[in-house]
Write a structure and sequence with these properties.
Structural class: alpha/beta
Number of helices: 12
CATH topology of the largest domain: Aspartate Aminotransferase, domain 2
Shape: globular
Radius of gyration: 21 Å
Largest sheet: 4 strands, mixed
Number of domains: 2
Helix content: 40-55%
Order of helices and strands: HHEHEHEHEHEEEEEHEEHHEEHHEH
Length: 379
């Protein structure tokens, strides 16, 4: 058995090597490295997949969030509601633009934004809400969008971990994650479900005027070259990355299915262990398992991770320190927040390897060792 990886990009590449190599060589041959045809084709194809009018590629997922906030015209001091239980980029861009992050708790089952917590956090200074579709699980968007519409607050979806997921509304309408808010944002970091071979990101919207604003901001604030209408930035997806993403987009549903199959194996393997809580799957959306994250009870989570490493099994803690307790955000009143679910999850979650190339042998080895270690430590 090969060394187990959290995400095995090498084995994934071997399955698409011929296509990827040819696509990269084509970009090199035509030398259109920036904003070349591959970027435009990818944007069109991703828009069709997501069911949106506009996809605006950019340099990374963090830029996508920043540009989205800039396009909404928020002013310093405006409040933006976001979960604390998320990767720091979600909150970092808020602080960078001199906006005020307002932290809310997450749901104990889904680990995603708790709608009641959002409702209680809204003030007359709230100018945006950023739900995070964490670990591949979608926020309860029907309830959130209804609340946001009632309060006239725009919603920016952080879809970096859930691209490929589908949300089903109560009337049966289906929407892809990232396509429901005024703007959706994603990252194409290599380990993502749809990842490139470097950095990359994109924004999605159905609003024509907003799409134009997003595109201009990402391109130095210009619509016509050398005529700069607003302060922007330089955030571009290069053509080689777009070429890789075009190939992997065609396989995204297959990749998500492979991750779900691995999650199904884990779920069954841990079903009878009372000290392990497997990921909850909401009935309103598909789960694309960017991460497979357990809660372990009655044991020291860090000791579990240490003992797994001794067996050659990698694991990760997403995330050991919540955003509201990070040093960089101390001026935003982190000590005043009471987020009990977030605080609890930070000490008990652990993520296991999950990717498109996991074999049954590897899954069995991982699951048996997790069960044995948790049982041993809980005695």
């Amino acid at each position: 058995m090969q060394g187990i990886q959290m995400v095995d990009l090498k084995r994934q590449y071997q399955h698409i090597k011929t296509e990827v190599d040819a696509a990269i060589q084509s970009v090199i041959d035509n030398t259109a490295f920036i904003n070349g045809p591959e970027v435009k084709h990818f944007a069109t194809e991703l828009a069709a997949y997501l069911g949106v009018k506009h996809v605006i590629p950019c340099a990374n997922g963090t830029d996508a969030l920043q540009i989205a906030l800039m396009a909404l015209g928020l002013q310093p001091g405006d409040e933006v509601i976001t979960p604390s239980f998320t990767y720091i980029a979600t909150v970092e861009v808020v602080a960078l633009l001199r906006l005020k992050p307002v932290f809310v708790d997450v749901d104990a089952d889904t680990f995603t934004m708790n709608i009641d917590s959002v409702r209680n956090a809204i003030t007359d200074k709230t100018k945006a809400i950023i739900p995070v579709h964490l670990y591949g699980q979608c926020v309860n968007m029907e309830e959130l969008l209804a609340l946001a519409k009632e309060k006239n607050i725009p919603v920016i979806e952080d879809n970096a971990q859930a691209i490929g997921g589908t949300y089903t509304f109560k009337d049966g309408t289906k929407k892809k994650t990232g396509s429901m808010g005024i703007v959706g944002c994603t990252s194409f970091f290599p380990s993502k479900n749809l990842g490139c071979y470097g950095d990359g990101g994109a924004m999605f919207t159905n609003d024509d005027l907003l799409a134009e604003q997003l595109s201009m901001i990402a391109n130095h604030g210009q619509k016509v070259r050398y005529y700069h209408e607003m302060v922007g930035c330089n955030s571009r997806l290069d053509s080689i990355q777009a070429a890789v993403l075009r190939i992997k987009l065609r396989k995204l549903d297959e990749y998500c299915d492979a991750r779900r199959n691995a999650a199904d194996y884990y779920d069954k393997a841990f079903a009878n262990n009372s000290n392990i809580v497997t990921p909850y799957r909401a009935d309103y959306s598909t789960h694309v398992f960017h991460q497979y994250t357990l809660q372990v009870k009655n044991v020291n989570r860090d000791k579990v991770q240490e003992m797994l490493a001794e067996k050659g099994i990698p694991s990760m803690i997403y995330y050991p320190v919540p955003s509201h307790k990070q040093e960089m955000l101390k001026d935003f009143g982190g000590a005043d927040y009471k987020l009990p679910v977030t605080d609890f999850l930070n000490i008990c979650v652990i993520s296991l390897p999950i990717h498109t190339e996991l074999t049954t042998e590897e899954l069995q080895f991982i699951a048996e060792n997790v069960n044995n270690i948790v049982d041993q430590l809980s005695k």
